[in-house]
Design a protein that fits this description.
Blueprint: H1 2-54, H2 58-62, H3 78-84, H4 87-119, H5 126-137, H6 141-154, H7 161-167, H8 169-185, H9 190-197, H10 202-213, H11 215-231, H12 234-239, H13 248-256, E1 257-258, E2 261-262, H14 264-293
Length: about 300
């Protein structure tokens, strides 16, 4: 009887504790949902405003008295059509495509070999060198473009889109190498030992074992290199002045702003079109990107 009574006396405490845990979980969920909603509003407001403005006519944008910033009275696609039918805008797009593809290819070739050497081929100073590679990424491009300007000029690539292929890897290679070092380091060492026992050399191990296994990390690095190359602004602004060689990031701005005259509708349409390729890439490959960035956290 005494044991039963003691058990019954303990039950209210247990129920109270369970109820408080449910209440805390409910409050935590509500706090998370409210925080996410506020963050979504702040992050989605600029692109939504860009979309609304891009659908307005120039007259509606200029009508300050009747203008409604978050609504369109007479939607139109004339701003998009004006850009897509412009040979200059298509040139901006082609310049961005060729520069981005070339930079991504150069970055991945250098980063894969560098990450494999630093992450798996242990040698004296490899850890210090790996840290140094990442630290170079922390140097802001606003400081690097000054010496790079002289380097690009010395090889005759100023005012040439291919000159960007020379300088963009200074932004992409260090971080991509660091991402893949973490991913290569997370692969079990038994794979190395088994391959060496079977008579494989380092190049065979890289192409037949590590690249297929580390594919999510390689995709994450590729997405990063693509995003940086596509969206870079400081370097093309410093190195490119001819409209025929400009990528989209500076071409749209430089050609649609003349003095104090802003073609707001086309500017917003051009910005949205320029942002579309990275959005599409992230939409389809986001899982690989997250897996690649978090690989080092699961090492061992």
């Amino acid at each position: 009887m005494s044991a039963t009574a003691s058990t019954n006396r303990g039950l209210p405490g247990i129920y109270h504790k369970a109820g408080s845990l449910r209440a805390e979980r409910r409050w935590a969920l509500w706090t998370a949902y409210v925080s996410l909603a506020i963050a979504a509003i702040f992050m989605l407001a600029p692109p939504f405003y860009m979309l609304i403005t891009s659908l307005k006519t120039s007259a509606e944008i200029a009508d300050l008295g009747a203008r409604t910033p978050w609504w369109v009275r007479n939607p139109t696609l004339e701003n998009y059509w004006a850009l897509l039918s412009s040979e200059m805008f298509r040139g901006f797009f082609w310049n961005s495509v060729k520069v981005t593809l070339a930079v991504v290819a150069v970055t991945m070739v250098i980063s894969v070999f560098a990450a494999f050497a630093l992450g798996r081929m242990r040698f004296w100073g490899s850890q210090v060198l790996a840290t140094g590679v990442f630290l170079t990424y922390l140097v802001p491009d606003t400081l690097l473009f000054i010496p790079l300007f002289q380097i690009v000029g010395s090889v005759g690539l100023l005012n040439n889109a291919w000159g960007l292929v020379l300088v963009y890897p200074t932004l992409t290679v260090p971080f991509c190498t660091w991402i893949m070092i973490g991913y290569f380091a997370s692969i079990p060492k038994e794979l190395d030992e088994a391959a060496l026992i079977d008579g494989a050399n380092w190049m065979q191990m890289l192409f037949r074992i590590f690249i297929p296994v580390a594919l999510p990390g390689i995709i994450a690095a590729t997405i990063f290199a693509f995003t940086v190359s596509w969206a870079a602004f400081v370097y093309p602004t410093a190195f490119i002045s001819s409209p025929a060689e400009m990528p989209m990031t500076i071409g749209v701005v430089s050609q649609l702003i003349r003095g104090d005259t802003f073609a707001w509708g086309q500017l917003m349409a051009g910005a949205l079109l320029a942002a579309l390729p990275p959005v599409v890439v992230y939409a389809f490959l986001m899982d690989y990107y997250i897996a690649g960035l978090t690989a080092g956290a699961t090492k061992g």
